[in-house]
Write a structure and sequence with these properties.
Elements lengths: L3 H24 L3 H32 L4 H26 L3 H33 L4 H9 L2
Helix pairs in contact: 1-2, 1-4, 2-3, 3-4
C-alpha cells in the first residue's frame, strides 16, 4: 500500500482540481455549475479534513508525535472553513468579484498548508505510524 504522504498528497491534487473547476465556473458567470462545482470542492475538502481530524491527527497524537504541527493544521483548517462559507455566500449572491478575492486568499492558504503537510506533517506521520499505516489508510478510504 502507498504511504500516507503519497495518499494524502494525491487527495490534495483532487481538491485542487475541484477548486479550479469551481473558480472557472464562477469567473464565467455559470452560476448553476458554480454551485455544483463548489459543492464538489467542499465535499472533497470535508473528506480530506475528516481523514486528518478524525483519523491521522488522533493517531499521531496517541503515538507520541509532536502536537505542535497538528495544532497549526487544525487552526488552518478552521481558517479555510471560514473562507469556504464566504465563497459559498458569494456564489449565492452571484458575486464573482467577491468570490475571486476570497478564492485568491484561500488559494494562498491552501498552497502553504499543503506544502507544510507534504514536507513536514505527512512524512512525520509515516515515520511515527509506520506500523499502523495500512490500517489507517483503509480507514481513510472508507470515509
Amino acid at each position: 500500500m502507498r504511504t500516507i504522504l503519497e495518499y494524502m498528497s494525491a487527495a490534495h491534487r483532487t481538491c485542487d482540481d475541484a477548486f479550479a473547476r469551481a473558480e472557472e465556473a464562477v469567473l464565467n458567470n455559470q452560476w448553476n455549475e458554480a454551485g455544483s462545482a463548489f459543492g464538489r470542492f467542499q465535499q472533497a475538502m470535508d473528506k480530506h479534513f475528516g481523514a486528518e481530524e478524525e483519523i491521522l491527527f488522533p493517531a499521531l497524537k496517541a503515538s507520541g508525535g509532536p502536537a505542535g504541527p497538528v495544532q497549526v493544521m487544525l487552526m488552518e483548517h478552521a481558517q479555510m472553513k471560514d473562507l469556504f462559507e464566504q465563497m459559498s455566500a458569494s456564489i449565492e449572491a452571484k458575486d464573482a468579484e467577491n468570490y475571486a478575492g476570497v478564492s485568491e486568499t484561500l488559494l494562498i492558504v491552501m498552497q502553504q498548508h499543503n506544502h507544510k503537510e507534504e514536507q513536514i506533517l505527512y512524512p512525520m506521520t509515516d515515520q511515527f505510524l509506520a506500523s499502523q499505516r495500512d490500517a489507517l489508510l483503509l480507514r481513510i478510504q472508507s470515509l
